[in-house]
Amino acid sequence: MKKxxxxxxxxxxxxxxxxxxxxxxxxxxxxxxxxxxxxxxDTAYSQSGKHYTYYRPYRNIMRTVTGHAGKxxxxxxxxxxxxxxxxxxxxxSFHQNEPDENGNFKSVYGRYTEAEYDRIANELAGxxxxxxxxxxxxxxxxxxxxxxxxxxAMSVAEKYNQQSIYDCNEDKLIENPHYNxxxxxMKP
Length: 188
Known about the structure:
This protein is an alpha+beta fold.
């Protein structure tokens, strides 16, 4: 007499397999590169139902970013570590260095906890539907966003007191006229 497959498996094994399938499907959804141009029905939706083309939530951003210390200046895909080269649009960040009591450079990451860094990066990327990348400038890595909209790039630069944004088309920096070096000092 043939036994049914369910006779051989107990409930614990069935639940374990179901959880594994769910976890793999969820993990796959979270590792699609943020800069990949997704089309048609291959788009993501937030819990609020907002449609995203480029943004994918990401965790442990600071740990991933700091792993790029010492790499050559440039933009890197946060998921693969591969170099990204944009020929138009703008790259920018929210990252601020920590000042000491006199407004001089103290540290690169001391201003943020890992949770704060994740929260700010994901909020900005979600608000503007931006890919989360890693930008290395003067040997220091930080979160980097990309947009073809100059207004978005400059508004983030102004809100987070960035010295400049990068114009990918012109291959030059665009200075933020509202930058205050005492609040976000550059490394000496």
